[in-house]
Design a protein that fits this description.
Length: 371
């Protein structure tokens, strides 16, 4: 919240340039981190397509053996030629594994990051778990089996929450009301940006390196990001050793340089939150939105392969198209929101409602039309 005297239009300190600033660098690093998080959790979708593609093209494969095994035990089997086969039930279970972890841990990790901080540490731990899990995924799949892999996918979901749930908690101490829409839009843009990149890359990796290489590449990228996160990420401007004096003064004007002390903390009104109509409306709309959007993103490569029978390369391109539309909408919304807000034509609450409805409906419209 802005101080009262600032809201009434009293003179304000001139904002230091955004280009090259710590607040922009942190937003860009978070953008890369969130995009790689989505990349590391979406690898399985195309790996399934790659496994099925290689199995179908394997002259030594014996699908009859796998069909018989599927009737007896609906999990995976290894065909001659060491090619895997997953039943539909097992594909759905494995694809949904990360979301079990997200749902189970989201409130808890969000509460911990809000109360105790250490957001940078949580993000680095989450990214490291995701990177290592991707690198060892082929070994777990081949040597331990599906249910061990399913448990690992749940753990990966908890790691996703460590990265995603702490993102806004970091950005809120670096984004002033003037550039809040832009910096938050950049930081959260990785959620949309990860999907357009993973599918074309995964298609190329499948063609030249096999399904295992998809996991190896994603995991390696995640571990490399740890270096950037360690160097550039800091929870608050007060903790950042390289933030300029001008930028720290600018952020201190809005009370953003450090977290509030424990004496000023207010007890969380859990009963009012649970019975709040706005809270439930946001939860319900987000539930149905993500149920549709995530369902499309996760299953689209499999649909294109099994129903449309496109090649691996074409599959990678067409699977990315809905997410490209989402990226365009995402990165144009932040600056537009800041501009409309500066006109003072709408209250902040109504403006957020309008953009929330327009953004979700537009993104879903684009996805539907592309598909």
């Amino acid at each position: 919240m802005l101080p009262t005297n600032l809201e009434k239009g009293t003179p304000q300190i001139v904002a230091p340039p955004l280009i090259g600033s710590c607040r922009l660098n942190i937003s860009l690093v978070i953008l890369l981190g969130t995009s790689l998080t989505i990349l590391m959790t979406s690898t399985l979708s195309f790996a399934i397509v790659c496994i099925n593609h290689n199995s179908n093209n394997n002259t030594f494969s014996n699908s009859t053996n796998c069909s018989e095994n599927e009737q007896r035990e609906p999990q995976s089997c290894v065909q001659p030629g060491n090619e895997l086969f997953w039943s539909k039930n097992m594909q759905g279970l494995l694809l949904g594994g990360t979301f079990y972890g997200v749902v189970a841990s989201q409130i808890l990790i969000g509460y911990i990051s809000d109360k105790y901080g250490y957001c940078k540490l949580q993000m680095l731990i989450g990214a490291s778990v995701l990177g290592i899990a991707n690198i060892i995924s082929p070994l777990v799949i081949i040597y331990l089996g599906d249910y061990y892999f399913f448990v690992m996918r749940i753990i990966m979901g908890v790691a996703v929450t460590c990265v995603m749930s702490t993102t806004l908690n970091v950005v809120r101490y670096w984004a002033s009301p003037k550039d809040q829409g832009l910096l938050v839009g950049i930081s959260m843009g990785g959620i949309s940006l990860g999907n357009p990149f993973i599918y074309p890359i995964a298609a190329a990796m499948c063609s030249y390196g096999g399904w295992q290489s998809i996991f190896y590449l994603a995991g390696t990228c995640g571990l490399i990001w740890l270096i950037l996160g360690f160097i550039f990420l800091y929870d608050t401007p007060k903790k950042h050793p390289r933030v300029s004096v001008e930028e720290k003064q600018y952020l201190s004007l809005y009370g953003l340089t450090s977290k509030k002390n424990k004496k000023s903390e207010v007890a969380i009104p859990w009963s009012k939150i649970v019975t709040s109509v706005p809270v439930w409306s946001v939860m319900i709309t987000n539930f149905f939105f993500f149920a549709v959007s995530k369902g499309v993103v996760l299953t689209l490569p499999i649909f294109i392969k099994e129903v449309l029978d496109f090649s691996i390369t074409e599959n990678g391109i067409y699977s990315a198209l809905p997410s490209i539309g989402n990226v365009i909408i995402h990165f144009t919304t932040g600056p537009i929101f800041d501009y409309v807000r500066s006109l003072n034509k709408f209250s902040l609450t109504n403006l957020r409602k309008i953009f929330h409805a327009m953004g979700k409906s537009t993104a879903q419209f684009i996805k539907t039309k592309v598909i």
